[in-house]
Design brief:
The protein has 252 residues and is an alpha+beta fold. It is built from ten helices and eight strands. It has a two-stranded antiparallel sheet. Strands 2-3 form a two-stranded antiparallel ribbon. The protein has a two-stranded antiparallel sheet with strand order 4-5. A hairpin with a 3-residue loop joins strand 4 and strand 5. Helix 1 crosses helix 2. The model has no long low-confidence stretch (mean pLDDT 93).
């Protein structure tokens, strides 16, 4: 059932509830770029270290995009590596956006209208047999839940990247080649490697990038992450978000 931001529901999760942390097992959690940024900084490690230790990569069949998924435990419960029973999440303030939304799901529809392509967001309930949170009396709207859980900020950080999620391989066209898959994964998730790509290669000699934007990328990881989204839209030929400098010929 599609829900709007004003939809009301009752839910509460707390340590005294019998199902506490059950939702943190036997689940596949796809990570967003901002998820990785927050989590690797919380742990005080590089993006490369985080991706190697805590994620697995899966290729989406419809788009050929490589996505990072949280690497769950090898035991039968497949428990999240950051959850400790009975205390709960050890990185709670930096948990992924999908964890913040639970028990709400978010979906996006790509629609063609007179003004062009629009992306319509809507919400739905996730009801699992083990979850007793719906039996609690605390009332929310979808919007107040998103605000309370910090999901609004995460959505703002990832909005441009979500546009890339809607891209699909065209019928009869070849799938994304391995080089572009590598670039997609790097610009999405591996900020430390992407920083080296921007500042230690010939990238800034080839592309016109405003000096203020360059300085922001040097100082601010969020600015670097958002430039990565711009780069990916150019790479995937979705938008002319970057421009080659005069005299530089595009690769054939």
């Amino acid at each position: 059932t599609r829900l709007d931001p004003d939809t009301r529901f009752k839910f509460r999760c707390h340590k005294a509830i019998k199902c506490f942390t059950r939702c943190c097992s036997n689940i596949d959690i796809m990570l967003t770029p901002y998820d990785v940024l927050r989590m690797k900084n919380r742990l005080g490690i590089t993006s490369e270290e985080f991706l190697d230790k805590y994620t697995i990569m899966r290729i989406d069949q419809k788009s050929s995009h490589p996505y990072a998924y949280l690497k769950m435990g090898d035991d039968a419960e497949r428990r999240c590596p950051f959850v400790v029973v009975p205390d709960g999440c050890t990185i709670y303030s930096d948990r992924p956006v999908s964890c913040r939304y639970y028990p709400i799901g978010q979906a996006t529809l790509k629609k063609r209208e007179k003004g062009g392509i629009v992306h319509e967001e809507f919400y739905f309930f996730i009801r699992e047999e083990h979850c007793l949170g719906y039996q609690e009396d605390t009332e929310w709207t979808i919007e107040s839940w998103r605000d309370d859980q910090g999901a609004l900020h995460y959505d703002e950080m990832n909005r441009e990247w979500k546009e890339l999620l809607m891209r699909r391989n065209l019928p009869g066209q070849p799938e994304l080649d391995p080089k572009k898959q590598t670039q997609f994964f790097m610009a999405s998730y591996d900020l430390d490697r992407f920083r080296r790509y921007i500042f230690e290669s010939r990238f800034l000699e080839l592309f016109e990038v405003d000096n203020d934007e360059v300085e922001k990328m040097r100082q601010d990881e969020v600015a670097l992450m958002k430039f990565g989204f711009k780069y990916l839209k150019y790479l995937m030929m979705m938008e002319q978000t970057l421009k080659l400098k005069d005299g530089v010929l595009p690769k054939q």
